Amino acid sequence: MDNEKKESTSFSKGLLQSEELYQYILGTSVYPRESEHLKELRDITATHPSSEGIKSIIRALKISPTMKIDLFLDLLTNGAKDNKWAVMATAPDAGQLIALLLKLINAKRTIEVGVFTGYSLLLTALTIPEDGKIVAIDMNREAYEIGLPIIRRAGVDNKIDFIESEALPVLDQLLEDPGNENGFDFAFIDADKINYWNYHERLMKLVKVGGIVVYDNTLWGGTVALSEQSTPEAMREGRQRTLDVNKLLAADSRVQISLAPLGDGITICRRIL
């Protein structure tokens, strides 16, 4: 265990060594540019039952997984036992990068798998042009409706086609229309990890060459850097699924990738073939 602690703190060249530094980044470059509607939705999400504190613990796990993992598990299995999907909220710094990517590629048609309360969805709707459209898929409409009044006040709900469903049938249905093949500019995936590769295969047909697909939670609380034996049992299955999809994405010649250490890790895939 001591050797793993040493490895987990020495291999990283990242500067985010403390919560204070992370808050400095948010306060300096993220929050000042965040729209009032995004801030309102972020605040509602943060105070929603079971979501308080989970995102900060995920950030802490990225910095020192062997020291923080027990705290994360306690919150996940006790404080969040009635609402485990609270961990799906998008980190605001990751959201800022997503907005930049959307602008850089002039995205107009997008897909979002896993909506939660709609922070990344609202951010996307605010970023794409007036005639842009988002296909938003989630099995939990209740969570989406927490943020829906804010999305409506922001005046962008007309850009969103929310579908309450499992994602694979919806993606397959989209592929039945030849007009959708290579018809989307961007996709954001923050959903069930077991299907990430199934989503990826379909998105490689739906998202055009030059388009971008972003996958969330690709560091899985920092456990990807631990051995299976050192990973708490409750996180082992998710860790293995994350390791598998990370390996597949890294070997996929159809995409150029970058795994950014924001939030719980986001992997950015630009389709090149």
UniProtKB/TrEMBL annotation:
Name the Gene Ontology molecular function terms of this record.
O-methyltransferase activity; S-adenosylmethionine-dependent methyltransferase activity
Give the UniProt keywords, A-Z: Methyltransferase, S-adenosyl-L-methionine, Transferase
**CDD domains of this UniProt entry?**
AdoMet_MTases
PROSITE patterns found in the cross-reference section: SAM_OMT_I (PS51682)
Which coenzymes or cofactors are required?
a divalent metal cation
Where are the annotated coiled coils located?
none
Family under the similarity heading: Belongs to the class I-like SAM-binding methyltransferase superfamily. Cation-dependent O-methyltransferase family.
Descriptive protein name: S-adenosyl-L-methionine-dependent methyltransferases superfamily protein isoform 1
**From which organism does this entry originate?**
Theobroma cacao
